[in-house]
Amino acid sequence: EDKVVQSPLSLVVHEGDTVTLNCSYEVTNFRSLLWYKQEKKAPTFLFMLTSSGIEKKSGRLSSILDKKELFSILNITATQTGDSAVYLCAVENSGGSNYKLTFGKGTLLTVNP
Amino acid sequence: NAGVMQNPRHLVRRRGQEARLRCSPMKGHSHVYWYRQLPEEGLKFMVYLQKENIIDESGMPKERFSAEFPKEGPSILRIQQVVRGDSAAYFCASSPGRGEKLFFGSGTQLSVL
């Protein structure tokens, strides 16, 4: 069974800090790893990673995948209070059920002013 | 271009009642997925539907739960004779095709008293 483990489960920082969120996974026939940001509403898509070592970047957020060690990290630099949310990691397999995402429990990030 | 629309946002039911959750996919999307998020848990796949067809319901509880996506109108997730353990956030997602990026709705929070 596919499995995703995120750490830490929660994190409290001050504005301006840099944070690193971790995601490790076990999946048969890996296709992609996705990061979502979930505030009090819909999970919104951040990144899709398919290849090792290639950093994806969007503003202050960046993410990278290591397919050998089976993990990904999400970095947020110069955090702002608006970054407070649950960050979800999910993996997709390339088998017959490639529409199914397996999610981790998420990391709750709180950014204090 | 409206996103995935779910209603109601919050639904309160007493034990034994029926719950009906609705999901209208994004325009141009004909693939709908339902996920459930129990407290302290990650999102779990429930069912995948295309218009008038259930493609995969392997994540659905065997009893009391059903889903449909008729030719006209929204997708409906129906829970009969609800129990307290059904209390959760139910998310709908849609995609333009199988295996393509999912766009999530804001979810329906079901509370069973």
Task: Give a quick summary of the entry.
The complex is a heterodimer of chains A (113) and B (113). Chain A is mainly beta.
Largest sheet properties of chain B: 7 strands, mixed
> What would you call the quaternary organization?
heterodimer
Shape of chain A: globular
Q: Overall pLDDT of chain A, averaged?
A: 92
**End-to-end CA span of chain B:** 36 Å
Q: How many β-strand stretches of chain B?
A: 11
Q: Which blocks of ≥5 consecutive residues of chain B have pLDDT under 50?
A: none
Number of helices of chain B: 0
Fraction in helix of chain A: under 10%
Total E-strand runs of chain A: 11
Tell me the structural class of chain A. Answer: mainly beta
Report the sheet-strand fraction of chain B. over 45%
- Please trace the helix and strand order of chain A, writing H or E for each element: EEEEEEEEEEE
Low-confidence sequence ranges of chain A: none
Q: Biggest interface between protein chains, with counts per chain?
A: A-B, 21 and 27 residues
Please compute the radius of gyration of chain A using only Cα atoms.
14 Å
Number of helices of chain A: 0
Shape of chain B: globular
List the helices and strands and how they pair.
The complex is a heterodimer of chains A (113) and B (113).
Chain A (H helix, E strand, L loop, with lengths): L2 E5 L2 E5 L4 E8 L3 E9 L4 E7 L6 E3 L2 E6 L4 E6 L8 E9 L7 E3 L3 E6 L1
Parallel strand pairs in A: 2-11
Antiparallel strand pairs in A: 1-3, 3-8, 4-5, 4-9, 6-7, 7-8, 9-10, 9-11
Chain B lengths: L4 E3 L2 E4 L5 E6 L6 E7 L5 E8 L2 E4 L8 E4 L6 E5 L8 E8 L7 E2 L3 E5 L1
Parallel strand pairs in B: 2-11
Antiparallel strand pairs in B: 1-3, 3-8, 4-5, 4-9, 5-6, 7-8, 9-10, 9-11
